[in-house]
Structure formats: C-alpha cells, structure tokens
Design a protein that fits this description.
The structure holds two protein chains of two kinds. Chain A has helices at 3-36, 41-49, 54-64, 70-82, 96-131, 136-150, 153-167, 185-223, 226-233, 238-275, 281-290, 294-322; strands at 88-89, 94-95. Chain A is mainly alpha-helical. Chain A has a two-stranded antiparallel ribbon with strand order 1-2. Chain B is built from eleven helices and twelve strands. Chain B has an eight-stranded mixed β-sheet with strand order 6-7-8-3-9-10-12-11, with helices on both faces. In chain B, strands 2-1-4-5 form a four-stranded antiparallel β-sheet, with helices on one face. Bound molecules: adenosine-5'-diphosphate and magnesium ion (MG).
C-alpha cells in the first residue's frame, strides 16, 4: 500500500467507527423523543377503529410489544437494528425495510435532482455574477436569488403548482408518474422527469440562492488571486484559466456547503414530498407521524442519519481530492 | 544598437481618476539588467504589470508606447500579447507563497507554459518541467514535480516560479521583488540563481527591488522612481558614487552597504515623511515636501530630467554637484 492509500484506509476506518457511535446516539435519542410524545400506535389504531375499549387497546398494546418497560423496548429495538432488522409496520402490513426500500429511490432521485440542479445553476449564475460584478446582470441575479432565499419552500411549491400546473398546464403537479401509462422504457423515464421538474426546482431554490452567492464570492476571489495573475503572466488563455485555475478552487467552498446542507435537504424532503405527493420516504415519514407508527418513524430517522453520514464522508473525500493542502485526517 | 524594450511616455491612471504613472520613459538593452528602485507605492509594480498588460481592472493605461522588439505592447492584440507572455517575457512575482496554484502539482504549473508555447505533449512537457526543476537546483526534481505547492518552502516555490518564467528562454525577465518575501540566506541563493540563469540564457532583466545592496550586486543600470515618475537614472556605480537627486541620496543614506563609501559610516538616515498617497502628490516636484533642499521654485512645475555626470536626474540642482 502506498502511504496515501494507507492514510485513506485509516481515515475511512476512523470515520466508520465515529459513524457507528453517532448512529447509536441518534437511535437512542430518537427513541427517547418519540416515546416522550403522548399516545402510541395502539391509541392511533384504536382511535381509527372507533373504539376506546380498554381491553382491546391493552391487547393491541401487548401484541405490539408496547406494554414492556421502555428500556426493554429500547434494548429490543437496538438489538434488532444491529441485525439489520427494522421490524414490521402494522399500519402498512409490511416489513419496514421493504417499505423504506420501496420509497427510497424516489427520495434519492429527488435529492439528486435538486442538488444537481442547484449546483449546476449556481455555477452558471455565480460565474455570470462574478464576471459582471456590480453591474446589472449581477444585481439582477442577486435580486432573484435573494427572493429564492427569503421565500418559504411550501409557498414556492404551491405557487409553482398554481402557475405551471393549473394555469399553464405545462407540468404535472403531483405524483411521480402517470398511473395510466406503461411503466417501462424511455417514455416512462420522460414521464418521471416531467413529474420531477416542479418538486426538484422547488426544493432547489433555497440552496440555489446560497450556492450562487458562494460561487460568486469564490470566483471573484480566485480571479483576483496571485496564482491567476501568474498563470496569465505565463500566457495561459482565458478558457484554460477559467477551467483549470479558477473553477477548481472556486468549487471547494461549494462542495463543503453542499455537504453541510445534505441533512437540511433530507428534512426539506418531508415538505416537498407532501406538497407534491411525491412517493418518497419524506412523505412516508409524514404519514408515520400521524399514524403514530413509531417503529417506522424511528427506522426512517435512523436511515436518514445513515444517508447523511455516508454523504458527508463522500463529500470529505471529494474535498480532499480537490484541495491537496487538506490531508484526510 | 536598438533597445529590446523601450518604454516611452507611459501613463497609467486609476479609472477616471488619479495618475499612478506619469510620463515614464526608460529602455532596456538585450542582456542588460535594469534595476528599478523606490519606496513602496512609487509605482514599480504597476510599471511591470503595464509592460505585461496585466494591470488590475481598477487601473488603465492612458498613454505612451511600450516597444518590445518592434511591437508596441500598448496596442497589440490580446492574442498576440498572450503569445508574448511566458514565451518572450517571463515574469516573477514577489509572493512565492501565493503565486502558485494550490490545487495543481508544481510540475504541471511549469509544464503548462511549455504546452502552450512550444506545443509539447503532456509527457514531453512534464519531462522538461522536471529538467527545469533540476536546473533551478531543486533536489530530487522528479519527485518534487509531483508535489503540490504547500509541501514546498518559500524559497523552493520561488524557484518553481522562476523555472516557469524561464522555461521558454525569454528575452526579457521581469522580477518584481523576487526575494523580498524570503529569508535572508535564501534571498542570496535565489538572486544568485537568477543571475546565473540570465547569463546562460542571455535575457535582459528588469529587477524591481527596494534593496540597494541587491542593486549593487546584480544590476548594470538603475532607475529610481518616486511617486510614479523617474527621478534619476544611470549606471549603478556612477549613481551610487554620485547621486544627483536628493531622493536617491536619501535612499543611499538609508541603506547599510559596506561596499559603498559613506561619509558617516554606521549611521543610517531615514528620509523624513512618507510617499504621498495617490492624488495627494505635491505640485511641481513631488519629493519637495520631504526635501531638505527644496526652494519655492520647486513648486513651479515638474523638474525636467537633466543630464548629469552619472546619467539623468529630475532635480533643479542636479547639475550643481552632489545632492545633499
Ligand atoms: N489595483 C489598484 N487600484 C488602485 N490603485 C492602485 C492599484 N494598484 C496599485 N495602485 C496604486 O498605484 C501606486 C503604485 O503602486 P505599486 O506599483 O504597487 O507600488 P510599488 O512601487 O510598491 O510596487 C500606489 O499608490 C497604489 O496605491
Ligand atoms: Mg510592488
């Protein structure tokens, strides 16, 4: 192994250990939080069934294992979690794992699309802003991004639905695909893409605003740097300067910021998916809250932490690759 | 013999405002070393950036000609200028710590010049880059070429910058305070390297510095600048012997230099006052407020450059013997 490979392996091992410890803390904390809330699944099911018969509720509670002391429940839960067993959702009559797995791709697709859109658009807008710093294109972009930044996500989503879906009728306003159509081939992919536009854009707006400002600042800094002046003094052309010397260095703060935002983005998915009835885990989580499906909710929260931890690890490695002066530690 | 570089009446101003360089003229012959000296803020860096056509956006070239080997750099197309930069004119900046791109291997930053100007393949350019690193006396160059700048010391980074600047054997090297940011011992080594490379390639050098000791060791001629103008110019030995502008004598008196006869050895004199801010320059002779010899007549217009025994000096009393 080269020293670099060894460093990376050591880094990964340490981060993995940290991640597991962190997950354990999160699982315990989530468990405690959810059990601090009055009412449980038995109450919810009984309430829906329209009975308040204490005997029925007690039986239900016993069936669901909710009559055990809390520490025992926690121990059982953690034990199952360690085996990769997320348990069973009585509401859906399905194992939690399969339920989540079914919904996960939709959420990942939405996240990837909105991050991808926010990053791509912010690179374009931020570069324009920097090139025309303090002139009208810059001011216009600043104004628009400020608007994106200050507007609540759900309002944005609703307005987008009203404008593009209802008034103009250009885009579907809910769901992930047209149920009436066959779910195969390019036509299906296009259909999903059309359904994706509004939620992804809505979800991206806030981040787009932050990223654009960030790109603008770091571009300005890079263009004013000594190393760009030196590159020019070597006779390097503008295109090469932009691609080789500026973009790379301007990208690092963006990568950091995207990493920090991943958790927020996952949280935002609850709102976006609810507004656009997107069949992802955000929507699933929303439903689980109202149905007191504690087991499902816990699993989603833990899984969300796993996604954020893994994504942050990837971002750290990308950051280290972009910034040689930062060694993985 | 015609000069390699002939700067004629160069003017640079802040966009729509204060004048930074005023009617600056000088020339550099092939193979010669011209030192430009003066306190901070006198316009030395702006002069070098104007020649490279790399002025910061806030500054504008407002007049004059910069003739380099037949072409007027003040008016050539950006494409032509880009072709000259790095190939026929190499530039070394003051800050080795920030001149190199932190995200690129140092070998690449040298190879880049060769790929652009000599159309070398990636592999060939890399081989040349390693040779150049060896040439600027960086030990273990093949391994060093793979490093990123943060792994190199200031002196080594400046050697990398020098290697990139001389990669195409330019006719002119502009070095803007190349050693100011370095440790004293490293300074001497880097200057020595620069001198030997110059001898080998036969380039002319414009060496910007405020260290008169460096001037004495390396330059053929010296140009003294004050507040954006040339105030004295001539052969180094002659000027150091017999400065005719009070500013030059002030600088010399403020420099500890055992090679130079000084009346009161061991005593260093400071020039009173400071370089004026842009737009706050005195009428007439800009040095007047700090000059012991100033008389009312000094305020009546910028003193012309007068011929002296040592060269040219822009002082009314330049022809009346040694400046006080
Ligand atoms: N980017 C800039 N914008 C405005 N003024 C500048 C800029 N760069 C330099 N100047 C002004 O030009 C003058 C000369 O600066 P400079 O050439 O850097 O001096 P030095 O002789 O120390 O190299 C200074 O008064 C400085 O304020
Ligand atoms: Mg300077």
């Amino acid at each position: 192994m080269t020293p670099r490979a060894r460093r990376i392996a050591r880094f990964l091992a340490r981060r993995l250990a940290q991640g597991v410890a962190l997950l354990l803390c999160i699982a315990v904390l989530d468990f405690a939080l959810l059990h601090a809330v009055p009412g449980d699944a038995a109450d919810a099911i009984a309430g829906e069934a329209g009975t308040a018969d204490p005997g029925y509720v007690a039986t239900l509670r016993h069936q669901l294992g909710l009559d055990q002391p809390l520490p025992v429940q926690l121990g059982l839960y953690l034990g199952r979690l360690a085996q990769g067993n997320f348990g069973y959702s009585f509401r859906y009559g399905q194992s939690v794992a399969s339920l989540i797995l079914e919904r996960l791709p939709a959420t990942l697709l939405l996240m990837a699309a909105s991050i991808g859109f926010a990053v791509a658009a912010s690179l374009v807008l931020g570069t324009l802003s920097a090139r025309f710093a303090n002139r009208w294109p810059d001011r216009l972009i600043t104004l628009v991004t400020l608007f994106f930044y200050a507007t609540p996500l759900f309002w944005f989503g609703l307005m987008a639905i009203v404008l593009f879906g209802v008034h103009l009728g250009w885009l579907p306003t809910g769901g992930m695909y047209d149920v009436a159509r066959p779910r195969t081939g390019l036509a299906f992919a296009l259909d999903v893409a059309r359904h994706l536009v509004l939620p992804a854009f809505t979800q991206a707006c806030f981040f787009l605003a932050i990223y654009t400002r960030l790109v603008r600042t770091s571009m300005l800094q890079a263009y004013g740097s000594d190393y760009v002046r030196f590159a020019r003094a070597k006779g390097v052309g503008e295109l090469r300067i932009a691609l080789r010397h500026v973009l790379r260095n301007a990208l690092t703060p963006l990568v950091t910021m995207v990493g920090l935002n991943l958790g927020t983005l996952l949280g935002g998915a609850v709102l976006t998916e609810t507004v656009f009835s997107w069949p992802g885990i955000g929507r699933l989580m929303y439903d689980a809250v109202f149905q007191r499906d504690v087991n499902l909710l816990l699993s989603i929260l833990v899984l969300g932490s796993v996604i954020v931890i893994v994504a942050n690890l990837l971002v750290d490695m990308l950051y280290a690759a972009l910034t040689p002066a930062v060694e993985l530690r | 013999m015609t000069a390699l570089l002939e700067v004629d009446g160069l003017r640079v101003a802040v966009n729509g405002g204060a004048v930074v360089l005023d009617d600056l003229s000088f020339s550099v012959a092939r193979g010669e070393t011209l030192a430009i000296v003066g306190e901070s803020g006198c316009g030395k860096s702006v002069t070098s950036l104007a020649i490279m056509r790399l002025l910061p956006p806030a500054l504008r070239l407002t007049g004059g000609a910069i003739r380099f080997d037949g072409a007027d750099l003040a008016t050539v197309s950006p494409t032509r200028m880009r072709d000259l930069r790095g190939r026929r004119i190499g530039m070394i900046f003051q800050e080795p710590m920030t001149s190199l791109n932190p995200g690129l291997r140092v070998g690449e930053q040298i190879a880049e010049v060769l790929r652009i100007h000599e159309g070398l393949s990636r592999a060939a350019a890399w081989r040349r880059a390693v040779e150049l690193l060896d040439h600027v006396r960086i030990p273990d160059p093949a391994r060093r070429a793979m490093e990123y700048p943060h792994r190199l010391s200031g002196g080594q980074r400046q050697r990398v910058v020098i290697a990139a600047a001389i990669a195409c054997r330019p006719d002119l090297i502009i070095a803007d305070e190349p050693t100011t940011a370095l440790d004293v011992t490293v300074q001497a080594q880097v200057l020595e390297l620069l001198k030997s490379l110059q001898r080998e390639i036969g380039s002319a050098v414009i060496l910007i510095t405020h260290n008169l000791g460096v001037v004495a060791q390396t330059a053929d001629r010296v140009m003294v600048m004050y507040a954006g103008r040339k105030v004295e110019e001539g052969a180094v030995a002659a000027i150091f012997d017999d400065p005719r502008h009070p500013y030059t004598s002030g600088l010399l008196r403020a420099t500890p230099d055992p090679t130079r006869p000084r009346p009161a050895r061991g005593v260093l004199h400071e020039i009173p006052g400071m370089v004026p801010r842009l737009g706050a320059r005195a009428s007439g002779c800009a040095f007047r407020p700090r000059c012991a010899r100033a008389v009312p007549r000094c305020a009546e217009g910028v003193p012309p450059l007068l011929a002296t025994n040592s060269g040219l000096a822009a002082c009314l009393f330049a022809q009346e013997g040694a400046a006080a």
